[in-house]
Amino acid sequence: MAAGYAELLRTRHAARLLAGTLIGRLPNATGPLAVVLFTRAEGGSYVLAGVLSAVYGVFNAIGQPLLGRAVDVYGQPRVMLPSAAVSALGMALLAVVGLDPLPVAYAAMVIAGFFTPPLEGGLRALWPGVLKRADRVHAAYALDAVAQEVLFAVGPLLVTTCVALWSERWALLVINVIGVLGALSVVASPPSREWRSAPREAHWLGALRSSGMLVLIASFFFVGLALGSIAVAAVAYADEHGGGMVSSYLLSALGVGALLGGVVYGARQWPGHPENRLRLLVALLALGYLPLALTPGVVGMTLLTGVAGVFLAPALACAFVVVDGHAPRGTVTEAFSWLVTTFGVGSALGMTVVGPAVERGGPAAGFGVAGAGGVAALLVLLSTKRFLSPGGRGLVSDAVQVTAENDRNEAAQPGFRAGHQA
């Protein structure tokens, strides 16, 4: 298992691209927390802190697919680095000006959120050209999903460390400077500079003209909703079971489960079509979420959340493979960005809708929202089989046939078309 990942990372440029992308995404992973800490340090209320973070998140969701489309048209360096710099300047504006005048603070969040570079989608567009082999690409998607879990665990620690060493203002500045350096490392690499998207048909819907993409987006919206609701329900559960570190135990167990699942999933090649495998993985994910509503004691609940996390990273890794098969030519970065954005929007909505459920029915009702989200994600995939058919043959509007994104001659590409294992 370890040997397979080591072989992947020894591939020329692979380790640099993965590390640079993770470092470049630090501002995105830590932005909401850093903004909340800074707002409170400046004397702002929790309500204001939440609103500023929400503005950042909303405009991040808007900007990712649009910037992804720009990357597909103009290439990575022309879009990634300038957008990273502008996003960092937005955060710097907040750090320097503070909360007064408030409209400037809101404008800073709009700029920082909207111009967050689509590094995540960009990396997944680069993997096939860098790794060449289908089994390595498959492992890279799994490793990417695992690394994302690590990023979201380590990122907040870095923010709080910066606050302890310096201040909330410096935390904003330092994290975003690091993010720009990460983006620079990626776009200065030969694969990023040389990468070109396949020729694309001009269409205002872009990646969304693929019915298969719409199915994926709808399904993972509900996966995100389930995950967001778990975060809030875990806090409610902790309040009824001694408070303290209980919610941390649950969320850490969820993350550890995802790490283990992702590592194991990416360590081998799986037979069959990825579309069929995705349905199975989402079914197992839903089955993992449903028992959380039982809310047993702390030890039992920690074990349940660990099991619930096992299939998250594999489902995400498999979804990345499916995206490559269903994204219309010339839209791969945009397509990945849409999936990431929708997952994030679903998570934010889950955090919102679970509140009333917890108020009425306690933690069990909150975790019930997570189970319902998992079931809804599965139902979307099961009810739309004809649109998400194996090998990227889903229906596409305007009679546009989906082909392998990274094949300039429209030949079958390992890991992205029917008849290949991925």
TrEMBL record:
Chief subcellular location: membrane
One Gene Ontology cellular component: plasma membrane
SUPFAM superfamilies in UniProt: MFS general substrate transporter
PROSITE patterns xref list: MFS
InterPro entries (alphabetical): MFS, MFS_dom, MFS_trans_sf
Transmembrane segments: 46-67, 79-99, 105-127, 139-166, 172-192, 213-237, 249-266, 278-295, 301-323, 335-358, 364-383
GO molecular function, one term: transmembrane transporter activity
Subcellular location: Cell membrane
Location of the Major facilitator superfamily (MFS) profile domain: 212-422
Pfam families, alphabetized: MFS_1
The keyword tRNA-binding belongs to this UniProt entry's keyword annotation: no
Sorted UniProt keywords: Membrane, Transmembrane, Transmembrane helix
Topology relative to the membrane: Multi-pass membrane protein
Signal sequence annotation: none
Record PANTHER family: MAJOR FACILITATOR SUPERFAMILY (MFS) PROFILE DOMAIN-CONTAINING PROTEIN, PTHR23542
Name of the featured protein: MFS transporter
Organism: Streptomyces paromomycinus (Streptomyces rimosus subsp. paromomycinus)
